[in-house]
């Protein structure tokens, strides 16, 4: 997760937003040929800094990757367990939007992710107050 270090290493919001925009473009380029595993891995790499503008910009890219998932079970089977907790954090972020389409997709992911990763994944994602998204 070297991307996290890139985000954290820069204090300039404009530099961080540029990196997030590049990441978002990469996610889009992976979604078009339907490479959902690569898109979701790219989306989940690196936490943005605590700046709300950066968090929101990062969420836009992650949401694109989440909404492109058609086979949730297949994605989770292919995804490294190190990503489960952060994925759960983004699922809760999606549920908090109130957007019906986003919430429906996030509920599907939540169900399958809980089956795969267990209830500990939920607890860890809610209890982690340092790495907020």
Automatic annotation (TrEMBL):
InterPro entries: ARPC5 (IPR006789), ARPC5_sf (IPR036743). Keywords: Cell projection, Cytoplasm, Cytoskeleton. It is found in: Cell projection; Cytoplasm, Cytoskeleton. GO terms for biological process: Arp2/3 complex-mediated actin nucleation; regulation of actin filament polymerization. It comes from the Eukaryota. It holds the Pfam family P16-Arc. GO terms for cellular component: Arp2/3 protein complex; cell projection. The keyword Magnesium does not apply. The keyword Translocase does not apply. PANTHER family: ARP2/3 COMPLEX 16 KD SUBUNIT P16-ARC. Functions as component of the Arp2/3 complex which is involved in regulation of actin polymerization and together with an activating nucleation-promoting factor (NPF) mediates the formation of branched actin networks. Arp2/3 complex plays a critical role in the control of cell morphogenesis via the modulation of cell polarity development. Functions as a component of the Arp2/3 complex which is involved in regulation of actin polymerization and together with an activating nucleation-promoting factor (NPF) mediates the formation of branched actin networks. Arp2/3 complex plays a critical role in the control of cell morphogenesis via the modulation of cell polarity development. Component of the Arp2/3 complex composed of ARP2, ARP3, ARPC1/p41-ARC, ARPC2/p34-ARC, ARPC3/p21-ARC, ARPC4/p20-ARC and ARPC5/p16-ARC. Belongs to the ARPC5 family. This is Actin-related protein 2/3 complex subunit 5.
């Amino acid at each position: 997760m070297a991307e996290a270090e890139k985000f954290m290493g820069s204090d300039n919001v404009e530099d961080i937003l540029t990196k997030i925009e590049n990441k978002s473009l990469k996610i889009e380029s992976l979604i078009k040929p339907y490479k959902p595993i690569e898109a979701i891995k790219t989306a989940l790499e690196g936490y943005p800094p605590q700046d709300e503008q950066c968090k929101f910009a990062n969420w836009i890219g992650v949401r694109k990757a989440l909404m492109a998932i058609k086979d949730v079970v297949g994605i989770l089977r292919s995804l490294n367990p190190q990503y489960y907790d952060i994925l759960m954090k983004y699922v809760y972020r999606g549920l908090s939007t109130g957007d019906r389409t986003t919430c429906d997709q996030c509920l599907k992911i939540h169900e399958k992710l809980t089956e795969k990763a267990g209830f500990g994944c939920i607890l860890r994602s809610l209890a982690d107050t340092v790495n907020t998204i």
